Amino acid sequence: MGKSSHIVWHDTLVTKRDRQLRNGHKSCVLWFTGLSGSGKSSLANALDVELFHQGIKSYVLDGDNIRHGLNKDLSFKKEDRKENIRRVGEVAKLFVDSGHIVSTAFISPFYEDRQLVRNMFEQNEFIEVFVDCPLHLCEKRDPKGLYKKARLGEISDFTGIDSPYEVPINPELVIEADKMTIEKSVQLVMSYLKDSDIL
Ligand SMILES: Nc1ncnc2c1ncn2[C@@H]1O[C@H](COP(=O)(O)OS(=O)(=O)O)[C@@H](OP(=O)(O)O)[C@H]1O
Ligand SMILES: Nc1ncnc2c1ncn2[C@@H]1O[C@H](COP(=O)(O)OP(=O)(O)O)[C@@H](O)[C@H]1O
User: Fold this and answer.
1) Is 185 within the bounds of a domain?
2) Which of 3, 103, 140, 180 registers the highest number of CB atoms within 10 A of its CB?
3) What domain count does the chain have?
4) What is the crossing angle of helices 16-23 and 78-97, to 10°?
5) Which run of H or E residues covers position 128?
6) Looking at the domain assignment, is residue 102 inside a domain?
7) pLDDT (average), residues 114-118
């Protein structure tokens, strides 16, 4: 018998739909994925500011921050990245249930892990946003000096250096982060949210 075989699911009395109706917008997860330094956090946070100013319920879950708390027991080995993404998926699902537009900024380099999260959500609730920025530019930006350390062999399993990044196959949105300003990228995501009737 599984560990959860004696645990019974409780439906909430206030439903996700009730919350969405009161908020005047739907809820969803914007799943930003891309190399370290590609611009995930900057874009997720700039979008959060825009949504906040428009009175929309939004929140950001950021890789660096979550790894300080909830996921501080996890490394960057493949299996730990999988668990990192699974947990973040579950947390994002709670935010979507609570009526929020939640933006997640995790490298989430493995296709299979992203699919696992996609499958936790209803159709149209999971919006994969590929923040596409070439490795050489991410490495040039290197805001935390981590690429330099990875090249020197001081950090192992670093994405793009000695750990793979699997490019999304059919993402809902691609942001060409080497060609576009953050402001323009925010506009693109906002247009997507309006066109898909989330806002
Ligand atoms: N080995 C290795 N590989 C990649 N990244 C590393 C590594 N070690 C530390 N860091 C820093 O951790 C941030 C990525 O954490 P994530 O939780 O987003 O990674 S993952 O989704 O589990 O792959 C990443 O932050 P971002 O630059 O915001 O992506 C790095 O600052
Ligand atoms: N569209 C962009 N154009 C130019 N620079 C950017 C853009 N997006 C992010 N940056 C810069 O790139 C660096 C990495 O951005 P960050 O959001 O921290 O990436 P990530 O969260 O993917 O690691 C930061 O110094 C940021 O100011």
Assistant:
1) yes
2) 103
3) 1
4) 70
5) strand 126-132
6) yes
7) 98
In terms of residue numbers, what domain contains 34?
A: 16-134+165-195
Percent of residues, the chain, with pLDDT higher than 90: 93
Residue 116 inside a domain? The answer is: yes
* Ligand 2 centroid distance, CA of 136 (Å): 13
33 lines ligand 1 (CB under 6 A): no
Please state, as a whole number, how many other Cβ atoms lie within 10 Å of the Cβ of residue 34: 27
Cross-strand partners of 104: 31, 61
- Look at residue 151 and tell me if it is in a domain: no
What torsion do the CA atoms of 131, 84, 95, 31 make, to the nearest 10 degrees? 10
Q: Read off the pLDDT band of 9 (50, 70, 90).
A: confident
Contact 35, 94 (CB under 8 A): no
151 burial level (CB within 10 Å; 0-12, 13-18, 19+): middle
ipTM, 2 dp: 0.98
Give pTM, 2 decimals. 0.97
Indicate if ligand 1 lies below 6 Å from the C-beta of 104.
no
- Determine the distance separating the centroid of ligand 1 and the alpha carbon of 8, expressed in angstroms: 36
CB 103 within 8 A of CB 32: yes
Does the C-beta of 155 come closer than 6 Å to ligand 1?
yes
> Which residues are CB-neighbours of 82 under 8 A, at least 6 positions away?
110, 112, 113, 116
State how far the Cα of 191 lies from the Cα of 102, in Å rounded to an integer.
16
